[in-house]
């Protein structure tokens, strides 16, 4: 996984149950076996997925 450019404003700090969680919004290129990429898209990436962190969306034509 590698970022396709980013800006410091895309950094997000959220407090969840007394703990600060750092995340980055932006576009990333994922490379790997198609079946594992599909799994990542369906389940989310990273920690705290059930709280909305790790949300990913496939962009067609990239």
Q: How is this structure best described in words?
A:
By secondary structure, this protein is of the alpha+beta class. Helices cover 16% and strands 26% of the residues. The chain has one helix spanning 34-43, and strands at residues 2-3, 11-16, 19-24, 28-29. A hairpin with a 2-residue loop joins β2 (11-16) and β3 (19-24). The mean pLDDT is 81.
Q: Helix and strand layout, with pairings?
A:
Elements: E1 2-3, E2 11-16, E3 19-24, E4 28-29, H1 34-43
Antiparallel strand pairs: 1-4, 2-3
Shape category: flat
Total of helices: 1
Q: What fraction strand?
A: 25-35%
Our measurement of the CA-to-CA distance between the termini, rounded to an integer number of angstroms, reads 14 Å
Average pLDDT number? 81
**Overall radius of gyration:** 13 Å
Order of strands in the sheet with most strands: 1-4
> Which parts are unreliable, with pLDDT below 50 for 5 consecutive residues or more?
none
- Classify the secondary structure makeup into a structural class: alpha+beta
SSE succession: EEEEH
Q: Total number of β-strand segments?
A: 4
Share in helix: 10-25%
Largest sheet: 2 strands, antiparallel
List keywords for this structure.
1 helix, alpha+beta, two-stranded antiparallel sheet, two-stranded antiparallel ribbon, 4 strands
